[in-house]
Design a protein that fits this description.
41% of the residues lie in helices and 15% in strands. The chain is α/β, with parallel strands linked by helices. The structure holds pyridoxal-5'-phosphate. Pyridoxal-5'-phosphate binds next to α3.
């Protein structure tokens, strides 16, 4: 059976060109990037090329990019690493109720260690209130961490406005941009972003590699002890091949930016229109305008999302439900709860996230099967 993949917010397939670029570093170019001889220098050079590509995509400098093992590690390093290094300046952090667990749980850990955290609520569309942000700031506030775009409902937060607020008050601003890479043009200087997390497997490079941008001059401590890799901020021999892959993938996605995002938007709008017209009692979640082009999050009344996924799987369709992203966690989603959706609608939620290889024909297949199952 043909697999129809609509879960690109969970992970994406690796591009052929990315695999090709990585292959030598799994093979003949096996040098350790920290050594002196040419085999190692080749690895180092390839890694620095990747670092330059990431920096270019964000309008950052090459020495501001740190490679990590994933988006979760980048979030941990940004939040805990910054908090530990700056606790003499204050112990208050502001974030939101709809962050990825890598951010929320990092904050929870800090709370146990004497930090105070404000978790901002969001409106029905999933957007934070800027007044509320301003009012939560105290003279102890050292860090604001607000995601660029939400992984469940696709809502894009008012990043530019947040950056202005934090800059004016000299508070450091971190954003989890894992879902935004490739879908939004990001200029960290123009947006006054001080730290930014990203993850390779959300934009067609492999799982197990991520990056953190930290503006020059911002102090943070490493969380893992060992060698002096990554400007002495992340010990451990670098995953050269995957770092090369991430660099290639970020380059491609921004080179094909307009074409790629137009395509996603067309698929998403077509899907939403068909569902709204043909399946009754459906509700689209998240901000309709300020939203990721590939995300469609829809709740169906009197439907069990997990059952729906199971039925769709029989037809080779991969999508996601309103329960937390892990299969063994059936807690209602904290994001859908935060936008005020009641539990029965949360249970009937289906997240569809489109990618570069989806077609209109795939969407028709999806809607036809969905209709059949729900009706
Ligand atoms: C996927 C995701 C992460 C985690 O990235 P990993 O590389 O899977 O650890 C963090 N934040 C958001 C918004 C995500 O979508």
């Amino acid at each position: 059976m043909k697999i129809r993949y609509f879960d690109h917010a969970a992970t994406t397939p690796v591009r052929e060109e990315v695999i090709k670029e990585m292959l030598p570093y799994f093979g003949i170019e096996y040098g350790n990037a920290s050594v002196m001889y040419s085999l190692g220098r080749n690895a180092k050079r390839a890694m620095q090329d990747a670092r330059r590509r990431v920096a270019k995509a964000l309008n950052a400098d090459i020495n501001e990019i740190y490679f990590t093992s994933c988006g979760s590690e980048s979030d941990n390093l940004a939040i805990k690493g910054f908090a530990y290094a700056n606790k003499d300046k204050g112990n208050h952090i502001i974030t939101t109720k709809i962050e990825h667990h890598a951010v929320i749980d990092s904050c929870r850990t800090l709370e146990k260690q004497g930090f105070n955290v404000t978790y901002l609520g969001v409106d029905e569309q999933g957007r934070i209130n800027l007044e509320e942000l301003i009012n939560s700031i105290t003279d102890k506030t050292i860090l604001v961490s607000i995601m660029f775009a939400n992984n469940e409902i696709g809502t894009i937060e008012p990043i530019e406005e947040i950056g202005k607020i934090t800059k004016e008050r000299k508070i450091v601003f971190h954003t989890d941009a894992v879902q935004a890479i490739g879908n939004v043009r990001i200029d960290v200087k123009k947006l006054n972003i001080d730290m930014l997390s990203l993850s390779g497997h959300k934009f067609y490079s492999p799982k197990g590699v991520g990056a953190l941008y930290v503006k020059d001059g911002i102090k943070f401590t490493k969380l893992q002890d060992g060698g002096g890799q990554e400007y002495n901020k992340r010990a451990g021999t670098e995953n050269v091949a995957e770092i090369v892959g991430l660099g290639k993938a970020i380059d491609i996605i921004y080179n094909e930016f307009d074409e790629y995002n137009e395509k996603l938007k067309k698929l998403r709008d077509y899907y939403i229109t068909r569902v709204k017209n043909e399946i009754k009692d459906s509700k689209v979640n998240g901000d309709i305008v300020r939203r990721l082009p590939g995300n469609a999050n829809i709740s169906f009344k009197n439907v069990m999302g997990t059952k729906l996924l199971f039925e769709l799987d029989k037809y080779g369709i991969c999508a996601s439900s309103g329960s937390a992203c892990s299969t063994d966690n059936l807690e209602p989603s904290h994001v859908l709860t935060a936008i005020g959706l009641d539990n029965t609608l949360i249970e009937g939620t289906l997240r569809v996230s489109f990618g570069k290889d989806n077609s209109i024909e795939d969407v028709d297949y999806l809607v036809d099967k969905l209709k059949g199952i729900i009706n």
